[in-house]
Amino acid sequence: MRVVIDTNVVISGTFFGGKPREILEAVVDGRIAAFATPEIVDEYQEVIEEMISRKQGHLSRDILAPFEAELSFVKPQSKVEICRDPDDNKFLGCAIDAHAIHIVSGDKDLLTLGKFEGVEIVTASEFCERGLRWESWTKSEQEGSRMYSAEQRKIAIETFVKFDHSYADTI
Fold first, then answer.
1. pTM: predicted TM-score of the whole model, two decimal places
2. Strand locations in the chain, DSSP E?
3. What is the mean pLDDT of residues 134-152?
4. Per DSSP, what are the bridge partners of residue 5?
5. pLDDT value at position 56?
């Protein structure tokens, strides 16, 4: 599953745990594919550096290294100018360029969009409920007696996402 992860989720997962940490662990474990641009990674690192300074340097400066090592980099091509906060536009552009299914964010400006050009914008909790639960199921199936090809998994995930969206529209 292709996702873009907002900085606030990376920071929450790194320093506070919970659902955001589950998402970071899923990236490190290779259960989901996370995408970022160099500008997004720079923002991750700047905010991490600021948080480490607040904690008086008691954490390793390379705390994000395992997560960053698993990121897939996207060259920014889409120019998006829709958000109230212009800094949020980079996440939308990255998601479009990466053909992501979700942006995972805690940012109210992004979350109020709900969906942008086919990319669903969800909270960490929503993503864990929908995305990680589905990925865990497909992973356990892969390790079990029935093996699915990458194409079969892709079709299954796309079907789940379409079903999930259809169901949400009826509520």
1. 0.76
2. 2-5, 33-36, 72-73, 102-104, 115-116, 119-122
3. 43
4. 104
5. 63
